[in-house]
Specification:
The chain is an alpha/beta fold. 44% of the residues lie in helices and 20% in strands.
């Protein structure tokens, strides 16, 4: 990115399953942090939105019962039904945010998150305007976590399990702080 303050765009998507070719994006969260050298990942801006689908669209999908149960328990299905945001609006919003960060440069935004290749795959299928702005590079916190678990096994990790986009992003950012401290020998 061309900004000195933000190296990454943190993104999390909640979906109807694991296969972007057969599923739908239900929720997104995008977060900007102070993440340049020496910064502490303080969140400076965050955005989240739930996508509305007509019941007929969702009924036409094959959705694993674990996903149905998870999103029932965390309230996402209720929020999908109540939302007025359409899928293309998420794509337009994220593309505009990327343009703001980079001055309109294509392939310049580095996604950050946990297992962020999952989110990138969904962007490729469902968010084509936003995808044009994304680099092939990602900042994957789950990789940092694996490294810290191998090289600094006493590391204590934040608890996560909400499966809601914004809470998952804030958990990923917290894990990035812990991993950086563990891998740089600074403790926690």
């Amino acid at each position: 990115m061309t900004t000195e303050r933000h190296q990454f765009l943190w993104l999390d998507l909640e979906t109807t399953g694991l296969d972007p070719a057969r599923g739908r994006i239900l929720e997104f969260a995008a977060v900007l942090c102070e993440d340049a050298a020496g910064d502490d990942f303080a969140i400076t801006r965050s955005y989240a939105g739930v996508v509305h689908y007509d019941a007929a669209v969702l009924d036409s999908l094959v959705i694993d019962t674990r996903v149905v149960d998870m999103h029932t328990a965390n309230g996402l299905w209720r929020d999908v039904a109540a939302s007025t945001t359409r899928p293309h609006e998420i794509d337009e919003f994220l593309a505009a945010l990327a343009d703001e960060l980079t001055g309109g440069a294509l392939h310049a935004v580095t996604l950050a998150g946990s297992s962020v290749h999952f989110d990138l795959a969904w962007c490729c299928v469902h968010l084509p305007a936003f995808r044009e702005r994304l680099s092939h590079r990602v900042f994957d916190v789950s990789t940092l976590r694996r490294a810290a678990e191998a090289w600094a096994p006493a590391t204590v990790w934040p608890v996560r399990d909400a499966h809601r986009a914004l809470s998952d992003i804030t958990a990923s950012i917290a894990e990035a702080r812990v991993a950086r401290a563990a891998l740089m020998g600074g403790g926690q």
